[in-house]
Amino acid sequence: ADRKMKYRPKVLTDCVCTGGTECKDVIANAGVASVASTIFVRVALGTLLERFGPVNVQTGLMFFGGFWVAVAGTISAPWNYTLIRFFIGCAGATFVTNQFWCSLMFAPNIVGTANATAAGWGNLGGGVTQIFMMSVLFLPMKNSGVPADTAWRIAMQVPAALFILTGIGMKLLCWDTPTAKRFDVLVTGKTQKPSMFDYVEVLKDPRVVVMIFQYSACFGTELAMNNQLATHFRTYFQMDAASASTLAGCFGLMNLFARSLGGITSDVLFKKFGFRGRIWAQFLALFFEAIMLFVFGCIDNTQPWYVALSVLIFFSLFVQMAEGTSYGIVPFMNKRQLAVVSALVGAGGNLGAVIAGFCFYKPISDALLPFKIHAGYVMFWALLSPCFYWPEYGGMFSGPAADYAEEVESSKEPKAVEAEPAAAGGDQVI
């Protein structure tokens, strides 16, 4: 087949966001600002969740995020675009609250499914937004005669309103634990007050560090794809904006079930093989994610776009599954420091996006090579799965130590809610 032109003026807009253009730099800088704020707030939530509880923290993040999404409609220059992206990025920390909250609410034998489903449907918003903002809000307004510059500003008010309404509903209707309205750290077996030294204690554990980077290899990859795919389909496969965003959105839409599938797989293998089942589920998801990402990087624009889309769907399946299997392991890593572990692993996901952006995609002008290098990064961390070993749970190639075998068997059974210690503080208002 004849090689396609690099650019087709009839398809692409006047401003092509590729290397060397001003808008490319503005978008990249704003993306870094957004991810930086998310990482900072995600890490901070380890302490904030223990002090204020998941309902108060999540509500505060929703209100804060909603305000800045609404203000985004006033963007007029690169500097305030970057600044507003920075503040909106703080709302990305809601994921940590989500996973900590689910770990409090659900029994050990189903916590993988619960965490994965809640997070997956949260990430589903990324895919839905790609399609909804363009096809349901912006384009209909533009086609009805509203100037494009006005249409996108009006469209931004819709997600802002949803932020606020969700926050109000959460504050009025939700409890921190199944039996107590307000969270108490005694629920996790922790006796001392939250402090910054909790982070030092957690990071001394190499297993936590490996999990942080494994999560950077799956959720970080998802964030990187969200930043790259629309532009990749638009400029490399020369598609119009609506079609490119729709194809890119398919990656996120897999969250409808794929992340839950990872959690379910983790729970099923845990029931059948013990904790080593969760580790194998994690390894296999990351391994095949790396394989499919490498294959995606081998598809050039001499092939039809639907070939790339087909591979992308399988790639997305394993990315989301790996995210689900990760948080099938996290609740067991250090139960007394559950909030801090959840926060650090969650922040690792955003760190992965920064690593991918600055090390793989930004410095390399080739359209396909960054995907292949990124695949190598994912494979490296997948191969470190044998590092996961706890005497009470076992590891990838061995079961728990004999002294812990009976305890592990009992942990597979659904437990009565462990939140009784919090009941004493149930009437506290924070």
Description:
There is one protein chain. The protein has 430 residues and is mainly alpha-helical. The chain has 17 helices and 2 strands. The model is unreliable at 11-16 and 414-430 (pLDDT under 50). The protein has helices at residues 22-52, 54-71, 78-89, 94-105, 111-143, 148-155, 157-173, 197-203, 206-236, 241-253, 258-273, 275-296, 305-333, 338-361, 369-382, 405-411, 420-423; strands at residues 389-390, 394-395. A two-stranded antiparallel sheet has the order 1-2. Strand 1 (389-390) and strand 2 (394-395) form a beta hairpin. 46% of the residues are buried.
Order of helices and strands: HHHHHHHHHHHHHHHEEHH
Structural class call reads mainly alpha
Low-confidence stretches: 11-16, 414-430
Indicate the mean pLDDT: 85
Shape: globular
Beta strand count? 2
| End-to-end separation | 66 Å
- Round the Cα radius of gyration to an integer and report it: 22 Å
Note the total helix count. Answer: 17
Largest sheet: 2 strands, antiparallel
SS strand fraction: under 5%
Helix content: 55-70%
Strand order of the largest sheet: 1-2
Question: Topology of this structure?
Answer:
Blueprint: H1 22-52, H2 54-71, H3 78-89, H4 94-105, H5 111-143, H6 148-155, H7 157-173, H8 197-203, H9 206-236, H10 241-253, H11 258-273, H12 275-296, H13 305-333, H14 338-361, H15 369-382, E1 389-390, E2 394-395, H16 405-411, H17 420-423
Helix pairs in contact: 1-2, 1-3, 1-4, 1-14, 2-3, 2-4, 2-7, 4-5, 4-14, 5-6, 5-10, 5-11, 5-13, 9-10, 9-13, 9-14, 9-15, 10-13, 11-12, 11-13, 12-13, 12-15, 13-14
